[in-house]
Write the structure tokens for this entry.
Amino acid sequence: MAEVELPPLTPQQKEVSDLFVDRIRVAIKRDGGMSFSEYMQRSLYEPGLGYYVNGFSKLGKNGDFITAPEISEHFAVCLANQCTQVFDAIGKADILEFGGGSGRLAADLLKTLLQKNSLPLSYQILEVSPELQQEQRQLIECELPADVCSKVVWLNRLPEKFNGVVLANEVLDAFAVERFRIVDGQPERIMVGASDNSFYSYPAADDQIKETVSAIERDCDRAFAEGYESEYCALVAPWWQSLARCIESGAVIICDYGSDRRQYYAPNKPTGTLRCFFRHTLHSDPFARAAVQDITADVDFTSVAVAATEAGLELQGYSPLSEFMLSLDVLDHHKQKLQALDKREQLAATGQLKRVILSQEMGDRFMVIGFSKGIDAPLKGFSRADWSRLL
Ligand SMILES: C[S@@+](CC[C@H](N)C(=O)[O-])C[C@H]1O[C@@H](n2cnc3c(N)ncnc32)[C@H](O)[C@@H]1O
């Protein structure tokens, strides 16, 4: 990724970032280094300072990214269509959304389900960010009738038992990743060190990394070249273990940037997929703008499928977002919507739909994977295309 000039920090952002840097510097000095995964985890979630918990704007024009539900309601309408199929199969049930962002997905999904007379028993949001929780509450209370709002609850941990639909849009890409580099033919763990005025990364020999990376190489049928750098997420398997334990029946739909394992570790990605965003500027330096920028990595959907099926769920399908939305009748919804709009509004609405399902940005790089437990019929979202054979 070419070097880019980053927008300046506000004084408040600088204060938070400096405090975070001091704290990490102390930990690195004390321990003689820090794994990249610990650095990423703390950059995103360090209490009071980390990106998701420090109170600065994250979503929309003033934030760092715009997600599919923020572009238009088309995505939420499709998910509502998927939810009704699951509700029909298992009876009245709940929705659990991981990482609710601004609350836009929850609000549009509930509006659509209200129109379909197919509201869930409850809409549960598991959100790590206190300020986003607050934003979600405000948006939902502003846009939905009180009896629907009363169905929305915020959780701090997974429920004991769950029947219904679990959704996670652009959440798994925030899970901290372990980075590695091939040095003298061997995978080494990328560590973070601190110099007087910055952090830097360096590789260090590590048996556990060797084992994990060798397993990835075996899966991909090739050895990584000297200097090849990439990452893997060790948090996916334990996440699925705890999620699967509480699901009695229903479906899990995960949407994110990513690919199957062979594509993820392709030779044409010699530095992996780690990306950073600061005020909509994409760059590759995880140490710049520490704690006030988003750090994310693509999702290895093969690891997601393996972890979920090992935890007892059934893989239902894997497809690009565009195909998933077309399977869930996005065009019918769009045609109906256009009827109520004037020419200028129609153009704007069509532009939004194109942005979600046609663009290089999302439609084909953004993937959806679905799992089920206790449902006989295949999930409708994968009826047009199922690329599971690639996983
Ligand atoms: C990129 S935003 C996506 C928001 C929303 N799903 C959307 O599509 O607009 C990531 C969301 O996940 C939340 N989040 C980040 N890490 C999380 C975690 N480990 N568990 C649950 N939520 C998390 C963030 O606070 C934020 O709400």
In short: The two ends are 27 Å apart (CA to CA). The longest helix spans residues 11-31. The CA atoms of residues 44 and 51 lie 4 Å apart. The mean pLDDT is 94.
